[in-house]
Predict the structure.
Amino acid sequence: MKKQERLEAEKFLLQCIFEEDPDFVDRTMEAFSVSRSTVYNYINHLQDTGELERVGGSMPYRIVYRTSRFTIDTSKERSEDRVYNRDVAPLLADYPANVQKIWRYAITSMLNNAMEHSGASAIICVVSRSRLCTIVGILDNGAGIFRRIQQARREETGESITTAEAASLLYTGGYTSDADAHRGEGIFFTSRLMDHFAIRSDMQLFTPVGEDEEDEGTGERFRGTAVQMALNNDTDREISDVMGRYVDPEEGFIRTEIPVARFFGGFPVSRSEARYLGERLEGFKEVTLDFAGVTEIGPDFAHEFFGVVVPRRPDLTVLTENTTDGVAAAIRRAER
């Protein structure tokens, strides 16, 4: 087998192991028309190169990540691009150009948030790489992103909100606790560029999908902020394509999407929730409401949002997706 074919077979094998597929040997044999002994030669080679390690059990191997860790003293370093160019860029130098661009945007954006908003004295960045993907963690010892938003809302409106409500302000994009200096778009766009994105602080979770929902409210409480991002090393994603879904060249950030289950922490039932959602859509011209994980909505919410709020916004286009028959029927009744 030629070198390129062997590399492709090894990567396929790693992907099967990453997905914890118990038939990883047979699948590789079938996909590349090789013998069982050849697949185990691949496994031995991956162990020799430090990419796999044997752990036993039903899934006897696991992927090994090469991890680099560095700490930023914010009293001495306030330039996120300098940190990225010095500490991170050399680690990703062999990646495709589009992947490097995505990581540069994502990491500098999250470092800037930690440097300028958190009040942290130290920021830790951890970069873990395998042949398949890269995982980056950015942790700071500041006040915590959701506490910071709570404080900003008290100062802006006088209202006290929960950490869950603070997290919900991030889903639409465009919210910032420092409107004079920031546009509040970094978290929104970064979360859409990544294969996995999550922020944890004070046991509160922000993630654009429900994959980590079972972990919410668990673990050790800490006041700082932890951001975790993961991206496939071979993704064909382009920054321009992702941003093009939400940004108009002339009008700017005018389209957004909201995971309803995450935004409301369940299913919405009340008129006040409908009005709150409407307030978050000020400045947008199109919104997609993703009802994945929502089996029903309250009639009061449906009437207030689809029958009152939306008709008052003729400039706003509301699209829905992943609606159950019950949710779709409630929306139709409200619109009538």
